[in-house]
Amino acid sequence: MSEKTNVLILFGGQSGEHDVSVISAASVCKALNPEKYAVQTMGITKEGKWYWGADPEEWMDAKADITANAVQVAVTLDPQKPGFQAVDGRELPNQGTCDILFPVMHGPKGEDGTIQGLFEMAGFPYVGSGVLGSSLGMDKDRMKAVFKEAGLPIVPHITLLRSKINAASEEAADHIVQEIGFPCFVKPANLGSSVGISKADNREQLVEALLYAAKYDRKVVVEMGVKAREIELSVLGNENAKASIPGEIRPAKDFYDYEAKYLDNSSELIIPAKLDAAMIKLLQTYAVMAFDAVGASGLSRVDFFVTEDNQIYINEINTLPGFTQISMYPKLWEATGIRYPELLDELIRLGFEKFRDDADRRLS
To answer: Which of 50, 262, 311, 323 has the fewest CB atoms within 10 Å, i.e. the most exposed one?
Structure first.
């Protein structure tokens, strides 16, 4: 029997999506084939401390000290032998090394290219997009710019800086009313999972939404509201990526917010979405175009709006989508013909493939 691949699952983190990451990691740990993989776990607290051996199941309950049976570690920045060292000097399993990192992290400092840059400096193979794809996929303002450059249809929008909003929220609202109108959606530029997002139907709600979003990021994106179906596709691959069949979300609320995504099962997920063959093919083409436009790799979920008259608008790309039991990314691939364990196998394979490709380039 061949030797197992040592996979280190990273989860948690400092973003507002910490809890979602913990749930996702628990799902991934359960689904990885124990005959193929030796699985280790690494939990990152909300304060940013790293703990080898943290159990996502225990972190989900959080009824006791979640670091009691784990070891605080630091990254060893040695690309010839990437690994971790215990802060207190004790010995770690497998000498603190692994074959590949599998980050199951969402939001800032997990999905925005920062931790991916650390992986690159340390020399780890890892699953998912690199620094550029991750950072572009997180920043809704820059994401829209590259989508537009690639010829993808986007919803009319305005980007404002927090400093301007805090200094003159009324003037900012006047500008938005004139350029965008109502209804509109107000979003922090660099958060996922609908954290900090509000819908505004009047000026009073708009000012409140601007100040609320500005608490989460220095840039705020305001989008024109469109009456449309919410359609999502999963993308898998590196240079020759493929898109899954589309799924539709019918939110129980006004829009698909954080609670609807992760805490409330009343929103309806329709897989496959009821669309004609030509529309499905076009959405799949657009999804891969979006994936390539930001320079993503491994996995992404791409979200669209489709209006009653079949006008398509791309909403966003998510380069590290949720892996919870009710998450669309694995559900769409399962409906397309790739089961959860096989999907994880392919993501790990793609991570190694990207690492080998990157290793072939000259740095000097």
So the answer is: 311
Q: What CATH architecture is 157-224? A: 2-Layer Sandwich (3.30)
Residues of CATH 3.30.470.20 domain(s) within the chain?
137-153+227-359
Is residue 48 predicted with pLDDT exceeding 70?
yes
Smallest CA-to-CA distance from 37 within 45, 24, 28 is with 28
Model confidence at 194, pLDDT cuts 50, 70, 90, reads: low
User: What is the C-alpha to C-alpha distance for residues 216 and 79, in angstroms, rounded to an integer?
Assistant: 34
DSSP for residue 201: S
Please give the pLDDT value at position 251: 83
By the 8 A CB rule, do 104 and 323 touch?
Answer: yes
Radius of gyration of the chain (CA): 21
Dihedral sign of CA atoms 151, 152, 154, 160 in order: negative
Protein fold of 137-153+227-359: D-amino Acid Aminotransferase; Chain A, domain 1 (3.30.470)
- 3-state SS, 217-254, equals CCEEEEEECCCEEEEEEEEEECCCCEECCCEEEECCCC
In the predicted structure, residue 150 carries a pLDDT above the cut 80: yes
- The structure's pTM equals 0.92
Asked whether the predicted pLDDT for residue 193 surpasses 50, the reply is yes
Q: Greatest CA separation found in the chain?
A: 68
Using the predicted structure, report yes or no on whether residue 264 has a pLDDT greater than 60.
no
Task: Provide CB contacts within 8 A for 285, sequence distance 6+.
Answer: 243
pLDDT of 191: 75
Contact status, residue 213 vs residue 220, Cβ threshold 8 Å: yes
CATH 3.40.50.20 domain span(s) along the chain: 5-126
Report percent pLDDT > 70 for the chain. 93
Q: What is the CATH number of domain 5-126?
A: 3.40.50.20
Strand partners, 222: 158, 186
Please state, in angstroms and rounded to a whole number, the distance separating the CA atoms of residues 359 and 355: 6
> What are the φ/ψ torsions at residue 312 (nearest 5 degrees)?
-105, 135
Instruction: Count Cβ atoms below 10 Å from residue 361 Cβ, excluding itself.
Output: 6
What is the Cα–Cα distance from 143 to 227, expressed in whole angstroms? 22
The pair of structure tokens assigned to 193 is 């999972």
